[in-house]
Amino acid sequence: MNTATLTSYPWWAYLQLMRPANIITAWADIMAGFAASGYFVLNNQFNIIPLLWLLLATTGLYGGGIVFNDVFDAQLDAKERPERPIPSGRASRNGATLLGIMLLSVGVAAAAQVSWLSATVAIAIASFALLYDAFGKHHSILGPINMGVCRGGNLLLGASILPMVLREYWFLALIPIVYIAAITILSRGEVHGAKLNTALVALSLILIVIAGLLGLGLLTNYRLLTALPFVVVFAARVLFPFIQAVRKPTPEQIRIAVKAGVLSLIVLDSTIAAGFAGFFYGLLVLSLLLISIKLAQVFAVT
């Protein structure tokens, strides 16, 4: 069954609202946080059930958050992006709202199967996602930080399987916070283009993220040499399109940079995962990139 046939089904529009390619990047957050927790080592057992619950949780939380993004933007999209599911009439606003509520509820409920702490983190992520969708995105400074907190919280959700580790490594959330802030700042030029200063700020934040990844080598249980190949791949994937966006901050070039930035979240997470859990676990996380890229050929990521 080809894509043209699938798009004729009513449910396809609601699937598009969820941005499946982006959800895979959220899985990578969980797996990176899980690696940082050292669960298999500290817990002295191989039990992936908690990880599976957390993957389901982030599917609901991210999917619900991104659906509500389109719900709140329906009127604006009718002018700027009429091809999107809601303004095009392929999905109703009420139907999307119901879908968003269901997904967020599933996210919190799945996290609760792991621990009360995981459920608390999930509720916080859902709250910040709705805050961003309704208000945060309209603020030039608070908006990018708000969105970054959602992704940073997602990484901590993966680490929440062991509460003591979460308290020790809370600062890991700062890396995706800064990274997502860079992408969010740049993404505001997807329709009308961006100012040179805005693109420069985004590029500077990317450089800070790369420095932060290298700085993790100061931790006693983080193997920088193991993670270094992943750092190189990450830098190669994001620096070029962001530099191009600085040189030519047009809507088209910015969309290319933003898409590369979103998909490279997986490479960022694989870098963290490899340093904490080894090269092959890092490759496992990195393999999600192939799935995300394939889905991005069918579904929009922005």
Automatic annotation (TrEMBL):
Highest taxon of the lineage: Bacteria
Transmembrane segments: 21-42, 48-72, 142-163, 169-187, 199-218, 224-244, 280-301
One GO cellular component term: membrane
Keywords linked to the UniProt accession: Membrane, Transmembrane, Transmembrane helix
UniProt GO molecular function: transferase activity, transferring alkyl or aryl (other than methyl) groups
Membrane topology of this protein: Multi-pass membrane protein
Subcellular location: Membrane
KW Transmembrane helix (keyword) present: yes
Keyword Heme set for record: no
PANTHER family, sorted: CHLOROPHYLL SYNTHASE, CHLOROPHYLL SYNTHASE, CHLOROPLASTIC
Protein name: UbiA-like protein EboC
Phylogenetic lineage: Bacteria, Bacillati, Cyanobacteriota, Cyanophyceae, Nostocales
Gene symbol of the encoding locus: eboC
